[in-house]
Design brief:
The structure is a homodimer. By secondary structure, chain A is an alpha/beta fold. Helices cover about 35% and strands about 20% of the residues of chain A. In chain A, helix 3 crosses helix 12, helix 8 packs antiparallel against helix 9 and helix 10 crosses helix 12. Chains A and B meet through helix 8, strand 8 and strand 9 of A and helix 8, strand 8 and strand 9 of B.
Chain lengths: ~400, ~400
């Protein structure tokens, strides 16, 4: 699958920060728009009819023998986090184009239409991720577009306008679940489970979901030299203690699979000679076991309140996103497993620790996912890597799965 | 001292970020240059001869009866940290102008010349503070001007050029210690010692000095969902543990007066769904007891290395600044105490927890400081406040001290 490997390298050229070493291509930027147009052109070259919906989700349709039958959707996303890798999301879009090419080359004519999709904004530019698939699932309200803001304070509504979309047409992006037979997403694992077990393909049976929230600690921004230790209200010292408690709570989870992370920390005012008066922690807790996840969240919030009380700090808890884990559809899982068996590949039924657009759509329509190994589990980083042979196998499994689902 | 209170309010108008609520006036910016020119004009209106030296220190001279006698220096700074208060530094410059006015109005004609000074860059725009007084003390080398950089990466040399100075003339800013009889600096306390004890004036007997350094933790920036807790190399989780250890080490100091602070924390890449792969902590440890301070620094570095080793992280220690505490000169202390007694004010001999330009010059010439209370000990913050009556008393004590030192 040299074509796929080359296409991934070509798409990686659409990059707002090449000097950093990785890929920066956030949704609704001019660079993203150029990248999406490049993908659309590649879809058309593969014989697909393309269209953009009201929030910038890109579709490429291969009309089936029965155009009115519910369709089979497949795809992922081509936006990235900051200084990210080149495979996350991209594989599921460019790989789907290769899968369609392979099916057409083999003379297939499926009964159901197959629709490829590049969802807009899977990565959390607006703190909440999966904004494109959320719009398609009918889970975004018009007011959310004004509320969701990126780190520069730009609202999603303004970003949409800047990219040529009309936020008031949000409702047009909704997909009627009755029109979708199934959705399958090909993705890199972003972990080391397959690598550790020496397996070639992961067939996802459940997708863990995040509960994200912000903890804001407020104390007193006083002079670092002139404020004795006993008279401080140091918001960062309190936040540090809370981070230690967070890690302990995640490790102690009853499910054994909960993960807890502080990915973003802002300490203000941010001068070496001033005790931080305000600290924000953006917290991410995930599990495929909803009850275990919520127990960990409760333990973290309780610890934060206890620490704040003891240190004479205020603490505020601001919700960011709270998603429900999704079980994959047995029919989609069976189709992917059958494809693996036919190809003679070793595969592993597994949980997805990362969330995906498939999780959002999985609340409305039957979904499944196919994973290929990530070298060292590295993702959201310039060193993210999946070997060409693994990419190739992922496309073959996706093609076999689509063929089975489309009939 | 209504004039002083009004002058402080007027100088506060020179502000690069009024929307934030406080004062932002960093050295070598156009706003700082305008503020300094306003101060120079005020010095000239008080009968002083003004000049700028090679690094932008502003002097205002009141020629004494014996112009060749070593001079009495007094002053502070008018640059600020980000979103700071209006009194820190400013009081020592504008208050000195009022002290000279009061002495002249009373018909004084001192034997020694009195030189007022507004030192450039006391606040750490270039991470290292007191760059103006360091230049005057001969403690900056030409190479330092290229090495010292602000948060945008601008070197001090480039900032000097941008403000119209020639970094190659750094040596011209050096003050021959033999030409200085004594230096006294009036300042707000920036702590709550005077307020707690209900005393009107602080006479400083020693100035604590900082040992500042950066701890950089490096782990692996992996996916927050797909990386199980047991397989993480989370740089922020390690940094959190190190911050807890830092606070414990400062509290356990044998002197009982050491303070330890992390004022700046940078977590990269800084996305909610990515485990931080690199975290920088800018650490400040201070004491007037040098040995006790160094014990605390050693304990912090040892804890950081132990934590990093246990968590499979790398840790790097980068020096920032390491100053030596200064004991104030008995003659200057005695002059300030005599001034307090003459005025019938309650005063407290005390240590300065904050460092000041007087600490830098104190390695070369006899120095002393006079403190007035800070409401709530708040400093480097928009809420920084000293009551007009306290400002007034500070100016009276300074005038009395200068009169005694200048003869």
């Amino acid at each position: 699958m040299t074509a796929l490997h080359e296409a991934i390298a070509e798409l990686a050229q659409f990059n707002d920060d090449p000097a950093a070493g990785g890929i920066t291509r956030e949704v609704y930027t001019p660079t993203y728009a150029s990248a999406l147009e490049w993908v659309a052109e590649r879809m058309r070259a593969a014989g697909l009819q393309t269209r953009l919906d009201a929030v910038g989700n890109l579709f490429g349709r291969w009309e089936g023998a029965d155009p009115d039958a519910p369709t089979v959707l497949t795809g992922s996303h081509v936006d990235t986090t900051l200084n990210a890798g080149r495979y996350d999301g991209v594989l599921g879009v460019l790989g789907a184009i290769e899968a369609v090419r392979a099916l057409r080359a083999a003379g297939a004519r499926p009964r159901r239409s197959i629709e490829l999709v590049a969802w807009a904004g899977e990565e959390p530019r607006f703190v909440t991720g999966c904004v494109g698939s959320r719009a398609a699932a009918g889970e975004l309200q018009r007011a959310d577009l004004d509320r969701l803001r990126d780190r520069e304070g730009t609202s999603m509504a303004d970003a949409l306008r800047g990219a040529g979309f009309d936020p008031d047409r949000l409702g047009d992006a909704r997909i009627d679940p009755a029109t979708v037979h199934a959705l399958v997403e090909l993705h890199i694992e972003q972990g080391i489970v397959l690598e550790t077990h020496g397996e070639q393909v992961g067939v996802v049976t459940a997708i863990a979901a995040p509960h994200d929230f912000r903890l804001t600690f407020r104390g007193a921004a006083t002079h670092a030299g002139a404020t004795p230790m006993g008279l401080r209200r140091d918001a960062l010292a309190g936040a540090a203690e809370a981070m230690v408690a967070l890690e302990r709570a995640a490790r102690a989870s009853v499910s054994g699979t909960t993960v807890g992370t502080v990915g973003v920390l802002r300490a203000r005012p941010g001068a070496i000679n001033v005790v931080p008066g305000e600290v924000e922690l953006d917290v991410d807790v995930r599990d495929s076991d909803l009850a275990a996840r919520e127990q960990v969240v409760d333990a973290i919030v309780a610890a934060a309140r206890e620490i704040a009380g003891r240190r004479d700090l205020e603490v505020e808890v601001t919700p960011i996103v709270q998603d429900v884990p999704v079980a994959c559809d047995p029919t989609v899982v069976a189709a992917a497993e059958a494809a693996c068996r036919e190809l003679g590949l070793s595969y592993r039924p597994m949980t997805s620790g990362a969330y995906h657009d498939a999780m959002i759509m999985g609340r409305r329509v039957p979904v499944g996912m196919v994973f290929v190994p990530s070298a060292g589990g590295v993702s959201h980083h310039p060193d993210e890597y999946t070997a060409p042979a693994d990419l190739d196998r992922g496309v073959q499994v996706l093609a076999g799965t689509l063929a089975r689902l489309a009939g």
